[in-house]
Write a structure and sequence with these properties.
alpha+beta, 12 strands, single chain, Jelly Rolls, seven-stranded antiparallel beta sheet, three-stranded antiparallel beta sheet, globular
């Protein structure tokens, strides 16, 4: 596979209703059938799944039973994907350099730790299934004139929530927040022997508040993603989001929930945009 191409496999045309809903509502559900997998994708996805078993503990959330690794890419207007995130002066940038409006709780939860974990040399960033998902998600982005002729920064997070008996896995931040990137895609990869992990969507006014403290009319939707590649697209400036805690179902058995997050940002720190 050409490592500089986003994906060597044909990417299915995204259903119009997904693009339309993302533009109109600020979020859209995506089913695994719509992603259009084949045997080669499934084999690559199986390899990617094994990487979740090797993730380091997420230091600021060490007691929350969450494990994470991050990598970055530069996506050129030509559609080519370059390893590493590069600024206009061709210097590598850190995870948060392009996330200027992230809610305060999100900055505290990710902050320096996220910068330290940026790594494109540990193998999994070149996984064909991952590149395929980046290409699929990129097709769903609204047509933003100011972005068409400029590189995009792509950050990918592998997250594992691994609860134990008496110790649920807790998302950080544990409140409604915004990540600070214009668009993010949440892909459920695999889970075993767990319950919870619901993604709750709300109006931006809910930021920094727990769902229990948010009026019911401010809640947009409860998104349960339980099957492999059940996915969710979010326009981050328009939607606050929160993940509920993940609990173990049966003691004495392995328990985990593996999630892939793909985030797109313009190369400039000006994230304002208009949608055609």
């Amino acid at each position: 596979m050409n490592q500089h191409a986003v994906s060597s496999n044909p990417i299915p045309q995204p259903p119009f209703q997904i693009v339309s809903q993302l533009q109109q509502s600020g979020y859209a559900r995506i089913g695994k059938k719509q992603i259009g997998r084949d045997d080669s994708f499934n084999r690559a996805l199986n390899l990617l799944e094994r990487q979740f078993e090797k993730l380091p503990s997420d230091t600021p959330a060490a007691t929350s039973r969450r494990f994470r690794s991050i990598c970055g890419y530069t996506l050129l207007p030509s559609g080519h994907l370059l390893p590493g995130v590069v600024a206009n002066d061709l210097q590598p940038v850190r995870f948060f350099d392009y996330y200027p409006y992230a809610s305060k709780s999100c900055q505290l939860a990710l902050g320096q730790n996220a910068q330290e974990k940026t790594n494109i040399n540990n193998g999994w960033p070149n996984n064909p299934a991952l590149k395929y998902l980046i290409a699929f998600d990129h097709q769903l982005l609204p047509k933003i004139p100011d972005w068409r002729d400029h590189p995009l920064q792509v950050f990918v997070q592998l997250l594992r929530y691994a609860p134990t008996s008496g110790a649920p896995a807790i998302a950080r931040p544990n409140c409604f927040h915004q990540d600070g990137c214009p668009f993010l895609f949440h892909h459920h990869v695999k889970s075993q022997n767990v319950s919870g992990g619901c993604t709750v969507l709300a109006d931006p006014s809910a930021v920094e508040r727990h769902p229990c403290d948010v009026p019911e009319e401010s809640i947009r939707e409860l998104c349960w993603m339980e099957q492999p590649l059940d996915s969710l697209a979010i326009a981050d400036q328009r939607i606050a989001h929160h993940s509920s805690l993940v609990e173990i179902d049966r003691e004495g058995e392995d328990a985990y929930r593996d999630v892939l997050i793909i985030q797109f940002s313009p190369q400039t720190t000006d994230h304002s945009y208009t949608i055609n």
